[in-house]
Amino acid sequence: MPQLTTLLNKCVIMKEKEDVNTEQAIMEAAEKEFLDKGYTLTKTTEIARIAGVNHAMLHYYFRTKDNLFEKVFQKKVALLANSFMPKVEEKMPFIEKVEYIVKAHFDFLASNPKLPFFVLNEFLTNKERLDRFSTIAGPAIRILLEKLNSEMEEAIKKKEICVVDPVHLLLDIVSLNVFAFLAHPIIERVAGSFGKEYYSLLAEKRIENVEIILRRLRP
């Protein structure tokens, strides 16, 4: 009996690993298709083909294209939040914390350069997507704003920074960083491929965006 129990446990572990690998493959294929083609033009049959599974298997794990899209989007929101939220909770000078947030956000976009254009397009063409984004990302954004507001008030009292609305600060960070990636495909289409020069440009833009935000804060 102990041998049978051990064998059954091994079978369960192998099945769990197989499930994780299959689900991961589907998620990765879905992310690529959604970012390349947008939600409307993405076909679950093509996602299944790229993932190396049949369509019934995809349906077993995610049921619908909408569920799969939401899972992919939740994953991206979680990755973004995890890139800077732990640092937000640390005790450190406010200026340094903001610098870290700007860099972390920029680096996240550099790792997901198609995401800003995709998100903007989905929001403009489907109001329900914006509602879902509010549901998924809203709690993390509210926590961030509350934390920033609390620490900003303290930094203002100490005259470490000038008076700035935390919402405006967040908008400045997002707009500066996102536009660098939104503008890229447009400029590339007009001026041709950047090649390696583009990545040098991004590195410079990252430094510049940090400095713009910090100048906004310094008294």
Automatic annotation (TrEMBL):
DNA-binding region as annotated in the record: 43-62
InterPro entries hit by this protein: Homeodomain-like_sf, HTH-type_TetR-like_transc_reg, HTH_TetR, Tet_transcr_reg_TetR-rel_C_sf
UniProt GO molecular function: DNA binding
Domain called HTH tetR-type: residue spans: 20-80
Record keywords: DNA-binding
Keyword DNA-binding: yes
Entries under Gene3D superfamilies matching the protein: Tetracycline Repressor, domain 2
Pfam families, sorted: TetR_N
Identification of the protein by name: Transcriptional regulator, TetR family
Protein species of origin: Bacteroides luti
Lineage per the UniProt record: Bacteria, Pseudomonadati, Bacteroidota, Bacteroidia, Bacteroidales
